[in-house]
Design a protein that fits this description.
The protein is built from 11 helices and 8 strands. By secondary structure, it is of the alpha/beta class. It folds into 2 domains: 194 residues, Alpha/Beta hydrolase fold, catalytic domain (Rossmann fold); 88 residues, no CATH class. An 8-stranded mixed sheet has the order 1-2-4-3-5-6-7-8, with helices on both faces. The chain is globular. The two termini are 34 Å apart.
Amino acid sequence: MPRLDVGDGHELHYELHGSSTGRPVVVLHGGPGGGLQRWILKLFNLRKWRVLLYDQRGAGRSTPSGSLHANTTWNLVDDLELLRTNVMDTPAWAVFGGSWGSTLALAYASRHPSVITAMILRGVYLGMPSENDWMFSAKGNAALRRPQSWNAFSKGGNGCRTTRACLSAYAKRIRNRRTRKAAVNAWNKWEADLSNLPVTPNEYPLAAIENHYFRNGCWLQPGELLEAAPTMTMPVVIVQGRYDLVCPPSSAAALADALPNVRLIWTNAGHPASEPETAAELRKATDWILHH
């Protein structure tokens, strides 16, 4: 099983797919903490792409599982450079990221724009406080659209009503062995309800790592990624669901306004990349990038 030691006690699981002579691309999974998904390979012409899938720190089959030690946005950015030079051995590559993966792609591009030939982003999340309020506040759009699901999530966080209170309450309950299972399940169910995806019971790494990142503002200054966007001159394709309840569509629109070389494609879909219209547009985007 291929692994890369990135330091700090972390080893990353990775997989290479497609043509050994294909155009290199790295896929950044969501969460954070979600882990790689092989079905994503359907979105690439594997005769023309060389695709790197990997599990970020603490996620999937990377070890130690669920670890929060030295697990920040900027640690993950450094890991991408190690993957590029030590695994892909390429001077530059394309970056494909959805949801949290879009955040990591933009953070990476803000530090290393010269090694990115193109970006394909889906379900844009900019790490802004307003985006967390959208999902974790009683007055947020997600709670207003899914009141029954919100009530269950709030109950799992000791009746929390604000973003700060909910993230803090869940952090304490996830750390406590007696309350961990119930808290993890409630966290994951809330996200699954918003995404219209099946619930994965007791998936500790996802809930623990997401909570860790969101409580710390993803180690980003408010507006940091938007401010860096004008320096990202590579071709960028954004595919955004109009009915996304996890990542507000306004974030994709704001990012498109700030990028100098961008195509913004709206789909009549929600958050998941697997929804048919979104998946079809992502496949078109990977084909389009091959010629740009």
